[in-house]
C-alpha cells in the first residue's frame, strides 16, 4: 500500500469514527497532512478546547494527550502510540515540588506544560515555549519557581531581570544535545544563514541565535523573513516542513542528531490502527483515562495559562 492510499483510508475512518486528529509539528510530514489541527504545544491546547468531534486522536507525546483530555473531558482522547512519552515530563514529581512549596510558600510555581497531570495539581500556572514570557511578565508576583526546564527558565529569567526566578535542573534531552561547537561549525559552513533556535537549548547555544522561539515561532519567522538561508536549532522535522513549505529558501539542521525519538514513534499505521480500534470498540486504541478529581485539580493551571496567554 502506498502512503497516499493509507492516508486515504485514515481520512475515511476518521470521518466514520467522528474523530479529530491533532498533530504536534514535530510529527512527520505524512502525519501532519492528514491532521485537522497542527501546531506547537500552545496552539494545540487552545484547539483541543474547541473540537466538535466525539473523539480526539493525538499524535504527539503523552502529556499533550493528557492536556487535551483535561481541556475536553467529555471527549474520548486517544494517543496514537502509547509508548510516546516526554522524558522531561517525568523529571520532577508532585512530592518534590510540594516540599519546595512548603519551604518557599511565597513563590508562584510556573510549570512548563511538559509535566504530568499529577505534578500540575501543585502548580499555579502552566506555560508553553510560545507563551512563557508573556505569562511570566503578566504575573503579579515577582517571586517565581519555574519548572522543569532550566534552559527555557534561564531564557525567561534573562528577559525579566526584575523578577526573582528560581530554577531546578531539568530540561529536554533532545534540545540539550546541541553544542556550541555544532552551531559554530554550521555558521562557518553557511555564513549567510540566520540561526533560529528553540529556547529549550542551552543558554550558550541560545546566545548565538538570531531568533529564539517556539516551533511555530521559528516556522513563522523563517516564512516571513526576506533572508533565504536558515540553520534550524530545533527538532529536525521542522527543517523538513519548512523546506516543503518554502522551496525557494534553504534550511539546514544544526545537527543530524536533533531528533526526538518519542515524537518520531508515531507512524501512519499507528494512526490507522487506533482509528480501527475506536471504530470496533475492541480496546485496541490507547485511550487517556483520568480521574475526574485529577482533571479538576490539574486543569486549573492550564486554564490560567489560556487566560493569561490569550
Ligand atoms: P513547543 O511546541 O512549545 O514549541 O515545544 C516544543 C517541544 O519540545 C514540545 O515537546
Ligand atoms: Fe520532550 Fe524534548 Fe521530545 Fe519535546 S522534543 S517531547 S520536550 S523530549
From TrEMBL:
Which purpose does this protein serve, as stated in its record?
Answer: Catalyzes the condensation of iminoaspartate with dihydroxyacetone phosphate to form quinolinate.
Q: Name one GO biological process term.
A: 'de novo' NAD+ biosynthetic process from L-aspartate
Q: Would the keyword NADP be found if you checked this record's keyword annotation?
A: no
State if Metal-binding is listed as a keyword. yes
Pathway given for this chain reads: Cofactor biosynthesis; NAD(+) biosynthesis; quinolinate from iminoaspartate: step 1/1
Q: What is this protein called?
A: Quinolinate synthase
Q: Which GO terms describe its cellular component?
A: cytosol
* Transmembrane annotation, as ranges: none
The species is Ruminococcus flavefaciens 007c
Q: Which SUPFAM superfamilies match?
A: NadA-like
Catalyzed reactions: iminosuccinate + dihydroxyacetone phosphate = quinolinate + phosphate + 2 H2O + H(+)
Coiled-coil stretches noted in the UniProt entry, renumbered to this chain: none
Q: Which UniProt keywords apply?
A: 4Fe-4S, Iron, Iron-sulfur, Metal-binding, Pyridine nucleotide biosynthesis, Transferase
Amino acid at each position: 500500500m502506498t502512503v497516499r492510499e493509507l492516508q486515504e483510508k485514515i481520512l475515511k475512518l476518521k470521518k466514520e469514527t467522528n474523530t479529530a486528529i491533532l498533530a504536534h509539528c514535530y510529527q512527520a510530514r505524512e502525519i501532519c497532512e492528514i491532521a485537522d489541527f497542527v501546531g506547537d504545544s500552545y496552539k494545540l491546547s487552545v484547539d483541543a478546547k474547541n473540537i466538535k468531534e466525539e473523539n480526539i486522536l493525538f499524535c504527539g507525546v503523552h502529556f499533550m494527550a493528557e492536556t487535551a483530555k483535561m481541556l475536553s473531558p467529555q471527549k474520548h482522547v486517544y494517543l496514537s502510540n502509547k509508548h510516546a512519552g516526554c522524558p522531561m515530563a517525568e523529571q520532577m514529581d508532585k512530592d518534590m515540588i510540594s516540599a519546595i512549596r512548603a519551604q518557599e510558600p511565597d513563590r508562584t510555581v510556573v510549570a512548563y506544560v511538559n509535566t504530568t497531570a499529577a505534578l500540575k495539581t501543585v502548580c499555579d500556572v502552566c506555560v508553553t515555549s510560545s507563551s512563557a514570557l508573556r505569562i511570566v511578565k503578566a504575573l503579579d508576583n515577582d517571586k517565581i519557581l519555574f519548572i522543569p526546564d532550566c534552559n527555557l527558565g534561564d531564557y525567561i529569567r534573562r528577559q525579566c531581570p526584575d523578577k526573582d526566578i528560581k530554577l531546578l535542573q531539568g530540561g529536554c534531552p533532545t534540545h540539550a544535545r546541541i553544542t556550541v561547537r555544532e552551531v559554530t561549525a554550521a555558521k562557518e559552513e553557511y555564513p549567510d544563514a540566520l540561526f533560529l533556535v528553540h529556547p529549550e537549548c542551552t543558554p550558550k547555544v541560545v546566545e548565538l541565535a538570531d531568533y529564539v522561539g517556539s516551533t511555530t515561532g521559528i516556522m513563522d519567522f523563517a516564512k516571513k523573513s526576506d533572508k533565504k538561508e536558515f540553520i534550524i536549532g530545533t527538532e529536525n522535522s521542522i527543517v523538513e516542513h519548512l523546506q516543503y513549505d518554502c522551496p525557494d529558501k534553504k534550511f539546514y539542521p544544526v545537527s543530524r542528531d536533533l531528533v526526538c525519538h518519542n515524537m518520531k514513534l508515531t507512524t501512519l499505521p499507528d494512526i490507522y490502527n487506533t482509528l480501527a480500534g475506536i471504530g470496533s470498540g475492541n480496546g485496541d486504541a490507547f485511550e487517556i483515562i483520568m480521574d475526574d478529581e485529577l482533571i479538576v485539580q490539574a486543569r486549573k493551571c492550564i486554564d490560567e495559562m489560556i487566560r493569561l496567554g490569550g
